Amino acid sequence: MNRRDFLLGSAASAVIGGTGFAVRPATAQQVQTEPVRPKDSGGFFRILTGSAHTTAFPVGVTMASVISNPPGSRPCDKGGSCGVPGLIAVALTSQGSVANLAAIGNESIESGFAQADLVASAYQGEGIYFRRAKQGNLRVLANLYPETIHLVVRGNAGISDIRELAGKRVSLDRAGSGTRFNAEIILAAYGLRLSQLKVLEVDPGEAADLMSRDELDAFFLISGQPAPTVGDLTDREIARIVPLTGRQIEGALRRHPFFTRDIIPAGTYRGVPETETLSIGMQWIGPESLDPELVYELLRALWHPQNRKMLNAGPPMAQRIRLGTALLGVSIPLHAGAERFYREMKLIT
């Protein structure tokens, strides 16, 4: 898909839709079940994000605004948007990193967000992708922001240390999800076996509902800060967050370099003090077949100085999208258009 064809599609959408644009958010599962090739995307540049219960979707909405400059808009140098001229971007909700990578890998979507660990695993055919075909056509556009690992526990469950999850009702998210993959790594680091837990497999929204009804003791959530689901529980004094510390974490960091140390600052969630934990980079990924010129212009728009104020006015994780960390944790090839851009920025030689 080249830039000219994509922007002509955008112009056609503008003619058909008049002055307003309405897109019904789709899930990654819908994208996979009813594949829509990029050339059939209706002229929109789509970004798969995550569920409404994480911070990925609002960050995606902000980014879509930043990189868009719909047909007929004023140009950047005349006070208009500093997005890609003629481009209309839209953020879509999804089931998360695993579903997003599947859609990108089969080229049924233009781009999406995915955790750095799963990007590397999918590209190399390791971890949860061990028995699947390698997704060698994945390419990185940018590292965006850290996704923090939250171990959320019911306030009256008597859990102050991760090892006290033994015998408790714990959700690790859906089978095959990125959260499940990393939760198992962390539990193993502390010597906990899944057989020692009463494991549930529900998404964060359902987990929060169960916790509200005293039907769940703990759940793992990987999200930017603050995560709305966690904030709702702490505001109602239902939940706390358990730190991930100690020599066990040192071992996890050595064995799994995609983990980095992180802090949940005091005040992020009501009643939660500063809490040590881990995080994983959230990356913007596209297929290798995406037009290099389009990718180059997308990144010029994302990092345009005039667009900084839009990122700063967005959700907290959008504020952490910085050119200086755009290559942090990148372990698979950059897209050709991204490589050109970062060379010009002298971030790579």
Describe this structure in words.
Helix content is 34%, strand content 20%. It has 349 residues and is of the alpha/beta class. The chain folds into 2 domains: 206 residues, 3-Layer(aba) Sandwich (D-Maltodextrin-Binding Protein, domain 2); 133 residues, Periplasmic binding protein-like II (D-Maltodextrin-Binding Protein, domain 2, 3-Layer(aba) Sandwich), CATH 3.40.190. The longest helix has 15 residues. 51% of the residues are buried. About 9% of the residues have low confidence.
SSE inventory with pairings:
Elements: H1 3-17, H2 28-33, E1 44-48, H3 56-67, E2 68-69, E3 84-85, E4 88-92, H4 97-105, E5 111-115, H5 116-124, E6 138-154, E7 169-171, H6 178-189, E8 198-200, H7 204-212, E9 218-223, H8 228-235, E10 239-241, H9 247-255, E11 260-264, E12 275-287, H10 292-302, H11 308-312, H12 316-319, H13 336-344
Parallel strand pairs: 1-4, 1-5, 2-3, 7-8, 7-9
Antiparallel strand pairs: 5-12, 6-9, 6-10, 6-12, 11-12
Q: Estimate the global geometry from the Cα principal axes.
A: globular
CATH homologous superfamily title of the largest domain: Periplasmic binding protein-like II
**Tally of helical segments:** 13
Largest sheet: 10 strands, mixed
Would you give the CATH topology of the largest domain?
D-Maltodextrin-Binding Protein, domain 2
Q: What is the total number of structural domains?
A: 2
Assembly form of the protein = single chain
Mean of the pLDDT scores? 87
Just give the CATH class of the largest domain.
Answer: Alpha Beta
Query: Secondary-structure element sequence?
Result: HHEHEEEHEHEEHEHEHEHEEHHHH
Strand content: 15-25%
Low-confidence spans: pLDDT under 50, at least 5 residues?
A: 8-40
Name the structural class: alpha/beta
- What is the first-to-last residue Cα distance? 28 Å
